[in-house]
Design a protein that fits this description.
single chain; Jelly Rolls; 7-stranded mixed β-sheet; two-stranded antiparallel ribbon; 2 helices
Length: about 130
């Protein structure tokens, strides 16, 4: 998978995220969005191996999180996850996490059962 992807909700025919950084390494997944002041409406982070759960420790802003199975189907959602929270996902098929600005899942109408697809996209380094 590319360093950046566009995330498209195939079910709803809507662009969810235009500039989504793909965190592929252990270190990229650990650091995630820590240290950022926020996310633009078209930014996001895709954790390609996020089995078990995600956290917002050391973050300064709330996020929306969609958990996906290996085919890109949304299997779990968390809206407006505030800083210093941990979300343990017990679904065995939840293998990727998409982190977005708070409110983005509602704006795009993304729901459990929607199919998300990823298109490679070239951008510079993350902020």
């Amino acid at each position: 998978m590319a360093d950046y992807v566009r995330v498209w909700n195939e079910t709803k025919k809507v662009l969810i995220c235009n500039r989504c950084f793909v965190a592929k390494t252990w270190w990229q997944r650990l650091v995630g969005l820590m240290g950022r002041k926020g996310l633009e409406r078209d930014e996001g982070l895709l954790l390609t191996s996020a089995i078990g759960g995600v956290h917002t420790c050391f973050m300064r802003f709330p996020i929306d999180v969609a958990y996906l199975n290996d085919e890109g189907l949304v299997v779990a959602l968390r809206h407006n996850m505030q800083p210093w929270r941990i979300w343990i996902v017990s679904r065995r098929d939840a293998v990727m996490a998409l982190e977005l600005p708070s409110g983005r899942l509602i704006e795009t109408g993304t729901e459990i059962g929607d199919l998300l697809t990823f298109q490679p996209h070239q951008f510079g380094s993350p902020k």
